[in-house]
Amino acid sequence: NLTEKISQAKSEGQPGDIMAQLYNEVGLAKYMQVKFKEALKDYDTGLTYCGTIAALHYNRATILYRMGDFEEALIGFQTAVKLDPTNEEFCVAEKSCMDCLFGKT
Question: Is pLDDT above 70 for 48?
Fold first, then answer.
Protein backbone atom coordinates (compact mmCIF):
# COMPACT_ATOMS: atom_id res chain seq x y z
CA ASN A 1 0.00 0.00 0.00
CA LEU A 2 1.07 3.58 -0.60
CA THR A 3 1.42 4.53 3.07
CA GLU A 4 3.89 1.68 3.52
CA LYS A 5 5.76 2.80 0.40
CA ILE A 6 6.14 6.28 1.89
CA SER A 7 7.37 4.90 5.22
CA GLN A 8 9.89 2.70 3.45
CA ALA A 9 11.05 5.53 1.20
CA LYS A 10 11.54 7.81 4.21
CA SER A 11 13.56 5.17 6.05
CA GLU A 12 15.70 4.64 2.94
CA GLY A 13 16.32 8.38 2.64
CA GLN A 14 14.89 8.59 -0.87
CA PRO A 15 15.45 11.90 -2.68
CA GLY A 16 12.84 14.65 -2.57
CA ASP A 17 11.47 14.08 -6.05
CA ILE A 18 10.73 10.43 -5.26
CA MET A 19 9.02 11.41 -2.00
CA ALA A 20 7.00 14.07 -3.81
CA GLN A 21 5.85 11.56 -6.43
CA LEU A 22 4.75 9.15 -3.72
CA TYR A 23 2.74 11.86 -1.96
CA ASN A 24 1.24 12.76 -5.33
CA GLU A 25 0.09 9.15 -5.75
CA VAL A 26 -1.41 9.09 -2.25
CA GLY A 27 -3.15 12.42 -2.88
CA LEU A 28 -4.56 11.15 -6.16
CA ALA A 29 -5.94 8.04 -4.45
CA LYS A 30 -7.65 10.22 -1.84
CA TYR A 31 -8.94 12.56 -4.55
CA MET A 32 -10.57 9.59 -6.27
CA GLN A 33 -12.28 8.78 -2.96
CA VAL A 34 -13.48 12.42 -2.79
CA LYS A 35 -11.36 13.00 0.33
CA PHE A 36 -10.33 16.44 -0.86
CA LYS A 37 -8.95 17.89 2.38
CA GLU A 38 -6.82 14.82 3.02
CA ALA A 39 -5.56 14.86 -0.57
CA LEU A 40 -4.64 18.54 -0.24
CA LYS A 41 -2.49 17.71 2.78
CA ASP A 42 -0.68 15.02 0.80
CA TYR A 43 -0.09 17.36 -2.13
CA ASP A 44 1.18 20.06 0.24
CA THR A 45 3.56 17.57 1.84
CA GLY A 46 4.75 16.45 -1.58
CA LEU A 47 5.45 20.05 -2.55
CA THR A 48 7.65 20.48 0.53
CA TYR A 49 9.84 17.68 -0.83
CA CYS A 50 9.95 18.99 -4.39
CA GLY A 51 8.14 22.09 -5.59
CA THR A 52 8.99 21.63 -9.25
CA ILE A 53 6.67 18.75 -10.10
CA ALA A 54 3.96 20.22 -12.31
CA ALA A 55 1.50 17.38 -11.67
CA LEU A 56 1.51 18.11 -7.92
CA HIS A 57 0.59 21.74 -8.55
CA TYR A 58 -2.05 20.74 -11.09
CA ASN A 59 -3.62 18.07 -8.87
CA ARG A 60 -3.69 20.42 -5.87
CA ALA A 61 -5.22 23.17 -8.01
CA THR A 62 -7.86 20.77 -9.35
CA ILE A 63 -9.10 20.10 -5.83
CA LEU A 64 -9.15 23.80 -4.98
CA TYR A 65 -11.09 24.42 -8.19
CA ARG A 66 -13.62 21.72 -7.31
CA MET A 67 -13.98 23.26 -3.84
CA GLY A 68 -14.69 26.67 -5.41
CA ASP A 69 -11.42 28.35 -4.40
CA PHE A 70 -10.73 29.66 -7.90
CA GLU A 71 -8.11 32.24 -6.89
CA GLU A 72 -5.87 29.68 -5.18
CA ALA A 73 -6.58 27.16 -7.91
CA LEU A 74 -5.45 29.64 -10.56
CA ILE A 75 -2.10 30.07 -8.81
CA GLY A 76 -1.60 26.30 -8.90
CA PHE A 77 -2.67 25.96 -12.52
CA GLN A 78 -0.37 28.82 -13.53
CA THR A 79 2.54 27.18 -11.73
CA ALA A 80 1.81 23.86 -13.43
CA VAL A 81 1.73 25.56 -16.84
CA LYS A 82 4.94 27.42 -16.08
CA LEU A 83 6.66 24.14 -15.15
CA ASP A 84 5.21 22.20 -18.10
CA PRO A 85 3.95 24.63 -20.76
CA THR A 86 3.41 21.92 -23.38
CA ASN A 87 0.86 20.01 -21.27
CA GLU A 88 -2.46 20.81 -22.92
CA GLU A 89 -4.51 19.60 -19.95
CA PHE A 90 -2.75 22.08 -17.67
CA CYS A 91 -3.31 24.92 -20.16
CA VAL A 92 -7.02 24.11 -20.55
CA ALA A 93 -7.48 23.99 -16.77
CA GLU A 94 -5.75 27.35 -16.36
CA LYS A 95 -8.01 28.95 -18.99
CA SER A 96 -11.13 27.39 -17.48
CA CYS A 97 -10.20 28.75 -14.06
CA MET A 98 -9.52 32.19 -15.51
CA ASP A 99 -12.92 32.09 -17.20
CA CYS A 100 -14.55 31.35 -13.82
CA LEU A 101 -12.75 34.26 -12.20
CA PHE A 102 -12.82 36.87 -14.93
CA GLY A 103 -15.51 35.73 -17.38
CA LYS A 104 -15.05 34.19 -20.81
CA THR A 105 -12.06 35.57 -22.67
Answer: yes
